[in-house]
TrEMBL record, chain A:
The lineage of its organism: Bacteria, Pseudomonadati, Pseudomonadota, Alphaproteobacteria, Hyphomicrobiales. Residues 40-202 form the Thioredoxin domain. PANTHER family: ELECTRON TRANSPORT PROTIN SCO1/SENC FAMILY MEMBER (PTHR12151), LINALOOL DEHYDRATASE_ISOMERASE DOMAIN-CONTAINING PROTEIN (PTHR12151:SF25). Pfam families: SCO1-SenC (PF02630). InterPro entries: SCO1/SenC (IPR003782), Thioredoxin-like_sf (IPR036249), Thioredoxin_domain (IPR013766). It comes from the Bacteria. Residues 1-19 form the signal peptide. It comes from Chelatococcus albus. PROSITE patterns: THIOREDOXIN_2 (PS51352). Keywords: Copper, Signal. CDD domains: SCO. This is SCO family protein. Belongs to the SCO1/2 family.
TrEMBL record, chain B:
Pfam families: PCuAC. Residues 1-39 form the signal peptide. The keyword Signal applies. This is Copper chaperone PCu(A)C. Keywords: Signal. InterPro entries: LpqE-like, Lxx211020-like, PCuAC_sf. It comes from the Bacteria.
C-alpha cells in the first residue's frame, strides 16, 4: 500500500515536471510575444519592403509614406480567416465612406508559390477594390514577415497538399509608417471600425 | 418495409376508418418535405446532422469550409472520418483556432469523435470540413450535395446551404448581425 502511494506520488511529480516543460516550451514558442519597443517607445514592428501588387506594379514601403495603412498576412487557399478578414475590411472601408480612401489596405500573401499576381487579382475582385494584394519572391515575403514579426508555417494535409498557419491580426500603421496597434480577429466588428476611424483621423 | 406497415396496420385500427395508402403516403411526403425545408437536417441511425452550411467563396478560391452540428442520440461513440462533395476534389476534417493572434490549422487525423448523447458543432474558428480543389465558385443562396462518412453510421448524404461570404452561422444571410468571432 505504502509502495503504491509512493509510486503514485512519483507519477504525479513526473506529470507536473512534464506539464511545466510543455508550458515553458509553449511560452517560448509563443509568436505573439509582447511587442518589443525600441528607444523612446517606438514599436519595432514594420519596416521597409518591396513587393509586387496584384496589378503587376511594384509597391515599396516608401510609396506608402503620408497615409495610414493596414497590413494583413494571409493566402488564398484559406477557408475561413482570410476571406472573412477581407470581407470585414471591405465592410469597414465602406463604413468609413470617403475617409476610407485615405487608408491603404494591404493583403500580403505568405504563400507566393501558389498566390501568383493573377490569382490574387482574381481573388480580390470579390472584395473592396481598394484592397491591394501583394506577392513577391519567397525572400521578399520572408523579409516583410520578419519586419512585421508575423509568423507563418506550412502544415501538410493529405497527399502533396498543404495549408498554412499564419498571423491573423491586421497591423495598423500610421502615416509615418509607425505601428499603432492591431485589429484582433476575435474582437467585435464595431471595435475594429473604431480603431480604423481613429487611424484615418490621424 | 413502409408499404407493408401502411398496408397492414395492427388489428385495433381496423375498425376505425383508416387512411388509404395514397393518403398515408401523401401525408408522409408532406411531413418529410416540410421537415426538410424548416429544419434542414439529415438523419442516419443514431446521428442527426443539423443545417450543414458553407460560405460563398471569393473568385478563384480553391478551398471552402463546411459547417454543421452533429448529434449522437445512440449509446455508442461514432466518428466522422471523411466524405465527398460534388463541388470539391476531396474533403478533410480540420480543426482551426486563433491562438495568440496566429491562425492554426490541423487535420483531425483519427476522425472527429461524436460521443453518445452529445453534439459536436463544426463552426468557423473551430472544427470544420475543408473542401479542397473546388470545382466552381460557391454563390450565396445555392445548395450543393455532399456525403459524410462515419465509422458506424456509414455514409450520410447531406446538402449544404451556401451563406454569404462573411456569414458566421447557418441561415444568417449577410452575417451583419454578428458581434465578434467564435475563435
Amino acid at each position: 500500500m505504502r509502495k503504491l502511494r509512493i509510486a503514485l506520488w512519483g507519477l504525479l511529480a513526473a506529470a507536473a515536471v512534464a506539464a511545466a516543460g510543455l508550458a515553458w516550451q509553449a511560452s517560448r514558442g509563443a509568436p505573439n510575444a509582447p511587442v518589443r519597443t525600441a528607444g523612446a517607445g517606438i514599436a519595432a514592428v514594420g519596416g521597409p519592403f518591396r513587393l509586387t501588387t496584384h496589378e503587376g506594379k511594384t509597391l515599396s514601403s516608401a510609396d506608402l509614406a503620408g497615409r495610414p495603412f493596414a497590413v494583413f498576412f494571409g493566402f488564398t487557399h484559406c477557408p475561413d480567416v482570410c476571406p472573412t478578414t477581407l470581407f470585414e475590411l471591405s465592410e469597414h472601408l465602406k463604413a468609413l465612406g470617403p475617409r476610407g480612401d485615405d487608408l491603404r489596405v494591404l493583403f500580403i500573401t505568405v504563400d507566393p508559390e501558389r498566390d501568383t499576381r493573377e490569382l490574387l487579382a482574381t481573388y480580390l475582385s470579390s472584395f473592396d477594390p481598394r484592397i491591394i494584394g501583394l506577392t513577391g519572391t519567397r525572400e521578399e515575403i520572408d523579409a516583410v514577415t520578419v519586419a512585421y514579426k508575423a509568423t507563418y508555417m506550412k502544415v501538410r494535409t493529405s497527399g502533396d497538399d498543404y495549408t498554412m498557419n499564419h498571423t491573423a491580426s491586421v497591423y495598423l500603421m500610421d502615416a509615418r509608417g509607425r505601428f499603432v496597434g492591431v485589429l484582433d480577429y476575435q474582437e467585435p466588428r464595431e471595435t475594429q471600425l473604431q480603431k480604423l476611424r481613429r487611424l484615418v483621423a490621424g | 418495409m413502409s408499404n407493408h406497415l401502411v398496408g397492414r396496420p395492427a388489428a385495433p385500427f381496423r375498425r376505425a376508418r383508416r387512411p388509404s395508402l395514397t393518403e398515408a403516403l401523401l401525408a408522409a411526403a408532406l411531413t418529410l418535405s416540410a421537415g426538410a425545408a424548416l429544419a434542414h437536417d439529415f438523419r442516419a441511425g443514431a446521428l442527426t446532422i443539423d443545417q450543414p452550411w458553407s460560405r460563398a467563396t471569393p473568385a478563384g478560391a480553391q478551398v471552402a469550409g463546411g459547417f454543421m452540428t452533429i448529434r449522437n442520440a445512440g449509446p455508442a461513440e461514432d466518428r466522422l472520418i471523411g466524405g465527398a462533395s460534388e463541388i470539391a476534389g476531396r474533403l478533410e476534417i480540420h480543426e482551426m483556432g486563433v491562438v495568440d493572434g496566429v491562425m492554426r490549422m490541423r487535420p483531425v487525423e483519427q476522425g472527429l469523435a461524436i460521443k453518445p448523447g452529445e453534439a459536436v458543432e463544426l463552426k468557423p474558428g473551430s472544427y470544420h470540413i475543408m473542401f479542397f480543389e473546388l470545382k466552381r465558385q460557391l454563390k450565396q443562396g445555392e445548395r450543393f450535395k455532399g456525403e459524410l462518412q462515419f465509422e458506424k453510421a456509414g455514409t450520410i448524404p447531406v446538402e449544404f446551404a451556401v451563406e454569404s461570404i462573411g456569414a458566421q452561422g447557418a441561415g444568417q444571410g449577410s452575417g451583419a448581425a454578428h458581434q465578434g468571432h467564435g475563435g
